[in-house]
Structures are given as structure tokens and as C-alpha cells.
Design goal:
- The complex is a heterodimer of chains A (about 350) and B (about 350).
- Chain A has ten helices and twelve strands.
- By secondary structure, chain A is of the alpha/beta class.
- In chain A, a hairpin with a 5-residue loop joins strand 11 and strand 12.
- Classes of the chains: A alpha/beta (about 350), B mainly alpha (about 350).
- The interface between A and B is medium-sized, with 39 and 29 residues.
Chain lengths: ~350, ~350
């Protein structure tokens, strides 16, 4: 199968008072039809900016500096706003982190869904309404005919996220970007929303880019994972490869900071330090100062992507043939993934 | 339905109470202020009057009694629809007002509507072009126009358009004998209207601009963009609706602001309206006139505020919170209540 979405050498920057912040630096990836790709990384690693740049809904001071985005072979970065509007919602759609603020508070939810339908499809209001009610039903809202007329403040957080999902899938987009859709929700609701996303993915065959900082969330949703740090991809691979055979020290850090109920460790492990300031990105490997396995070369030369298998590659000098062999510190347990 | 009646009757009681309080305050303040009410009644003649004559006149006007007694007699007369005579015009107060109130309604109403219409358009325009050169320029110019006092601008405009260019009349509401001619009225309205709008426009436009800019950074705008809506639609359909409640509140609260402006401008342009009347009655201690004018203004302000609340509740259902709780529960799906 061909690639649905292809991103080549994307650079995204944000103008700030202190200077140009290079939020995304030279990122390339592709997304196949029906695939779920997870982008992992801590706060400020550029995941959200990356996804917003795909839809070109960056904040006013943000801009795509360089690179290309292809959707089914069509280049997006140079498209005028008008053509972009035809792609947003219809081809690529997005759900956001905070369901409490993402709906317009004074417009009934039904109308907000209808609006999404009517923007892209020619149909009568009555048909659109019928469709919206169907959508509400699809995302698991009871009594959709009644709920249609209600306002966002009459829904709980989980319900609102469901409505946001209904809006996102209203025109059956090919790509759905989920920007930490479960972060702001209760743990019990998180699971429901994840199940819903998976169900919709199977039902409509949507490709999903799932952004999260929570490894547990993506474990049995994603087929492929990319790990992002300081605006760059540091490791990409299939879910199995990342979980069982991680190579980058940063991925190790993320994996070992997953809380594990079966282990007797008293303390939660964590990655020391802070992500670097991207206004003046450090020379060499951005992760080096926080990396206890850092080599001298890490401080002045950036590691290239080393290919491990056809699907798995990581950017760390540890994979160089001359580097010391370091065993992964992760003592992996089955219980972590199979939940 | 019962809720509605209770709500309305509450408001009416509120209105009556506020009016009552206002009447007491104005009544006392007017009478305690220094000055001689006889001047307005007898004009220059007062200077030639002896003490005995003056006392007689004061007694005749009923001003020798304690203020509270005067107030109660005024109140009981007012309930019978008698608001006394104007000392200056020697006519029934209401008939004096009846002759001019329409002028003020035209000027005040037009300036109110136009100010808020232009402010809305200008504010949205600036928000759309946020931080671009045009926005920055308008912001600077706007600040200057608000800071210049209305009476000064009025005089400047009179100097330019009436005296130097001779295009527009400098005073009055219409040319003599042409009270029915619309063209004449419009000609007389241009200058006062310009002053009023210039004076208030930016104050409200800037409010709209900032609210709009803030609103456009909200999360729901992002979702609207993702839906594929264009910028215009997001602004007019989503953001505008969200800032409308506060704008309408501001509109209602600004009734006294704009009314006050109207009064000043009326005076400068010698426009025969309530403002000029009000100014004169305060200056000449025309008590009965002053009372009625203050009450009319006060009631107008209170009603405007109430209207704002009512409209807000329509636009933003969350504002009904305190008394609408029941209604929602009726709407919620049966299963969710259990």
C-alpha cells in the first residue's frame, strides 16, 4: 500500500521575543492507509506543533520554515488558505487535548457537528441533522435526538471529548490527528475514549496519528511509534520494537518511567534534567546533557539515524560500530504491555 | 410561565424602588445646592424686588416649607400626573418636555446606534488585522480621538464647517419653520452626530478589538479551523456570538455615558433637546423641570440595564443559571438522571 501522508524534512519555527524557536527540526515520516502512528515525547518536544503544522493551524507566530507535506501525493505546505480549508476536516482532522474548552460554549453541540458536515458536503439541513444524530450515536452518546439541542456545559468532559470526536470524523477524514486526547480525562474515561478511537479506526479505516507522552496509552493502539525529543525524531520503530528492543537512551528513560505495579521498586524512575531550550538548540545530540550513557562525540556531533531493522532506527552514537556496547537497562516484563 | 411573571414583577418592583430613591436624592440635592430659584422665575426682575416681595414669591412657590414636606406634596402631585410648572417657561413641565424630547431621541438614539455599529465593525476589522500596520495605525488615531474633549471638537467643527466653509449650520435642530423637513434636520444633525461618534467610537471599538483578539485564541477556534471553516465565518459565527453578551452589557451600561455626551453636545450646538433643558434647569434652579428630567434619565438607565440582562440570557444560556436549573433537567435525557 502506498503512503497516505508523507512528511519530508519538515522544519517548523515559532517567532518569540527571544528569537526563533525551532520547534520541529528536520522531521520526516510517512503514514500508511489504516495505520496508527504514535508520536511519543515529553512536554515541549514539539509533538503538538508538528501536528498543527500538518493542518497549518499553527499559532500566529509559528510558520513552516522548510520541508514538504504530501497528502496522497499532493503537496500541502504551499497550498493557499482556501484549498487548505477543503482539506481540513475533510481529509485531515484533529481532536484536541482539553475537551472542556474545545467546543464553542454557546452553540448547541448538534449545530456544531452539523456545521462540520455542511462545510464539506452538499446536503440539506435536515439530512445534515440526521447525519449528526447518527454521529452522536456512533460516538456513544445516549439519547442523541435530545442531546443534539444541548449546550456543551451540559456535558461532562468525557462526553465532550466524544462530541469533539464526532465533529472530527463527521466527514470521514482519511487522517485523524489525536493530540493527547485522553490527557485531560479521568483514568476510567481515558480507557473508554481509547476504545472508541480504536473502534472508529477499525470501522472507518482512518489512519491515526496519536500524540501522547504516555507509553501505556499507545501500547495496544499503535502499530508504529516514533519517539520525539527536542523537535527531532530520536527513534522510530514498530510498537514491538520500541517496547522490547529500544535502542535510544531517551526511549529507555521513557520506558523505565512507566509505573509498574508488579515491580518492588519503591521509587518511580525518571529522566533527570530539563529538555533543552530550542531557541539556541545545543550542538551535538540534544539529549546528551541528560544522558548518562552520553559519549564525548554526543556533545559536538549530532548522531545520524542508524538503521537497526527495515522498520526500526534510532539516532544515537551508541549504535555506531565503534561505540561501547551498552545493554538496555530495561528489564522488560510482559505485564507492561499486555494490560 | 409562572417563573417569567415572577421574574418580571421582581424587575418592576426594583424599578419602582430605584426611581423612588432617585427622586428623593435629586429633590434634596437640588434644593440644598446654593442659588436662587427666583431668578429663573422672575428673571432680571429679582434684583428690583424688595425682601417682602421675595418672601411672598417664595411662599407662593411653596419653597418656604421644610424640604420633606415639599417632597411629599410633590410626590402626591406626581402620582396624580402633575409635575408642576417650569419656573423658567411658566408652563407645565411635561408640555415643555413634549416639545423637545423627540430631538434628543433622534440625536441620542442615532449616535447610540451608529457608535456601536461602527465600533463593532472597526473592532472586528482591527482584530482581523491584528498587529498589522493598519491595526496599529487605527489604534493610535483612535486613542487620540477619545482623548480630545467633545466640546473642543464641537467648537473646532463649528469653526471649520459653519464659519469658514459655511456648509453646515452651527446650532438648532432644524431651520426656522422647517421642523418637518427631513433634509434640514439631517443637515443640523451631521455635526453633533460626528462629535458624539468620534468621541465614543474608539472606546468601544478598542474593547471589541481586544475581546475579539482574546476570543480568537480560544481552543474552540482551533476546532473550527480544523473543521475547515474560513476565518470570516469563524469570526462572525463563533467569536462574535461569544463576545456579544459582554458587548450588549457594555452597550446597556453605556446608555448614561452616551446620554451624558449627548447632553454636553446639545448644549454646545444649542440643540433644543433634553440636554439643553437639563442644563438650564440645573443652572436656574428650575426644580420641577430638573426632577422630571432626572427621573426620565434614571428610569432610562435602569431599563437599559434590565434589557441587557434579558438579552444576555437569550444569547448565553449559562446566564440563566440561578433560575433555569429546572428547565435543563426537563431537557436532559431520562436515563442520565437516574
Amino acid at each position: 500500500m502506498g503512503n497516505l501522508l508523507e512528511v519530508k524534512n519538515l522544519f517548523v519555527s515559532i517567532n518569540t521575543k527571544e528569537g526563533e524557536l525551532q520547534a520541529v527540526r528536520n522531521v520526516s515520516f510517512s503514514l500508511k492507509k489504516g495505520e496508527v502512528l504514535a508520536i511519543l515525547g515529553e512536554s515541549g518536544s514539539g509533538k503538538s506543533i508538528l501536528c498543527k503544522s500538518l493542518l497549518q493551524i499553527l499559532p500566529k507566530n509559528g510558520f513552516i520554515k522548510n520541508g514538504e507535506i504530501y497528502l496522497e501525493g499532493r503537496e500541502l505546505t504551499r497550498l493557499p488558505e482556501k484549498s487548505m480549508n477543503k482539506i481540513r476536516g475533510k481529509e485531515i482532522s484533529m481532536i484536541f487535548q482539553d475537551p472542556m474548552t474545545v467546543l464553542n460554549p454557546i452553540i448547541p453541540v448538534g449545530q456544531q457537528i452539523m456545521e462540520a458536515v455542511l462545510t464539506h458536503e452538499k446536503m440539506s439541513k435536515l439530512e445534515a441533522k440526521k447525519r449528526s444524530i447518527e454521529l452522536l450515536m456512533t460516538v456513544g452518546i445516549d439519547y442523541p435526538e435530545k442531546r443534539f439541542y444541548q449546550f456543551p456545559f451540559q456535558f461532562s468532559g468525557g462526553m465532550r471529548q466524544r462530541i469533539a470526536i464526532a465533529i472530527a470524523i463527521a466527514c470521514k477524514p482519511k487522517v485523524l490527528i489525536a493530540d493527547e486526547p485522553t490527557t485531560a480525562l479521568d483514568v476510567s474515561i481515558q480507557r473508554q475514549i481509547l476504545d472508541l478511537i480504536r473502534e472508529l479506526q477499525v470501522k472507518f479505516g482512518i489512519s491515526i496519528i496519536f500524540i501522547t507522552h504516555d507509553l501505556g496509552v499507545v501500547a495496544n493502539l499503535a502499530q508504529r511509534i516514533v519517539v520525539m525529543y527536542a523537535g527531532k525524531f530520536v527513534e522510530t520503530g514498530t510498537t514491538e520494537e520500541i517496547f522490547y528492543d529500544a535502542r535510544h537512551p531517551y526511549t529507555w528513560g521513557l520506558l523505565s518511567s512507566l509505573p509498574d505495579v508488579d515491580c518492588d521498586n519503591e521509587f518511580l524512575s525518571y529522566i533527570p534534567g530539563m529538555p533543552p531550550n530550542l531557541i539556541n538548540p545545543p550542538e551535538g545530540d540534544a539529549f546528551a546533557p541528560r544522558n548518562k550513557y552520553a559519549l564525548r562525540i554526543d556533545y559536538y556531533k549530532e548522531p545520524p539515524m542508524f538503521k537497526i531493522t527495515e522498520t526500526h532506527s534510532a539516532a544515537t552514537w551508541l549504535l555506531h560500530k565503534d561505540a561501547p556496547k551498552i545493554e538496555s537497562p530495561i528489564k522488560f516484563k510482559e505485564c507492561r504491555v499486555i494490560r | 410561565m409562572v417563573d417569567k411573571i415572577i421574574g418580571i414583577s421582581k424587575k418592576v418592583i426594583q424599578l419602582i424602588f430605584v426611581t423612588f430613591l432617585l427622586s428623593i436624592i435629586v429633590f434634596y440635592m437640588a434644593r440644598l445646592a446654593p442659588g436662587d430659584p427666583l431668578v429663573s422665575y422672575f428673571g432680571e426682575g429679582v434684583e428690583r424686588m424688595g425682601t417682602a416681595q421675595k418672601l411672598e414669591a417664595i411662599e407662593k412657590l411653596g419653597l418656604n416649607r421644610p424640604i420633606y414636606e415639599q417632597y411629599f406634596s410633590w410626590l402626591s402631585n406626581a402620582f396624580h400626573g402633575k409635575f408642576g410648572i417650569s419656573y423658567k417657561y411658566k408652563q407645565d413641565v411635561l408640555s415643555v418636555i413634549k416639545d423637545v424630547y423627540i430631538n434628543t431621541i433622534i440625536l441620542g438614539g442615532l449616535s447610540f446606534v451608529l457608535t456601536f455599529l461602527f465600533a463593532l465593525l472597526l473592532g472586528i476589522f482591527c482584530a482581523e488585522n491584528e498587529d498589522k500596520l493598519i491595526d496599529k495605525a487605527i489604534c493610535k488615531i483612535g486613542t487620540i480621538t477619545t482623548c480630545v474633549p467633545a466640546f473642543w471638537v464641537s467648537l473646532l467643527l463649528i469653526l471649520i464647517f459653519s464659519i469658514n466653509l459655511g456648509l453646515l449650520p452651527s446650532s438648532g435642530a432644524y431651520a426656522i419653520g422647517q421642523s418637518k423637513s427631513i433634509a434640514s434636520r439631517i443637515k443640523h444633525l451631521i455635526l453633533p452626530l460626528t462629535v458624539l461618534i468620534l468621541n465614543h467610537l474608539w472606546y468601544y471599538a478598542y474593547m471589541i478589538r481586544n475581546k475579539m483578539v482574546e476570543e480568537m485564541r480560544q481552543d474552540y477556534v482551533l476546532l473550527c479551523k480544523v473543521k475547515g471553516l474560513d476565518k470570516k465565518r469563524i469570526i462572525y459565527k463563533h467569536c462574535l456570538r461569544n463576545i456579544m453578551p459582554s458587548y450588549i452589557t457594555i452597550m446597556a451600561l453605556s446608555v448614561p455615558h452616551i446620554l451624558g455626551g449627548t447632553y454636553v453636545v446639545e448644549k454646545v450646538f444649542s440643540y433644543p433637546g433634553l440636554g439643553t433643558l437639563c442644563f438650564e434647569s440645573a443652572k436656574y434652579h428650575d426644580y420641577n423641570m430638573l426632577m422630571v428630567l432626572c427621573l426620565i434619565t434614571g428610569i432610562l438607565v435602569v431599563i437599559a440595564n434590565m434589557a441587557a440582562q434579558a438579552i444576555n440570557e437569550r444569547i448565553d444560556p449559562r446566564m440563566k443559571h440561578d433560575r433555569g436549573e429546572k428547565d435543563w433537567n426537563n431537557n436532559t435525557a431520562p436515563g442520565t438522571l437516574k
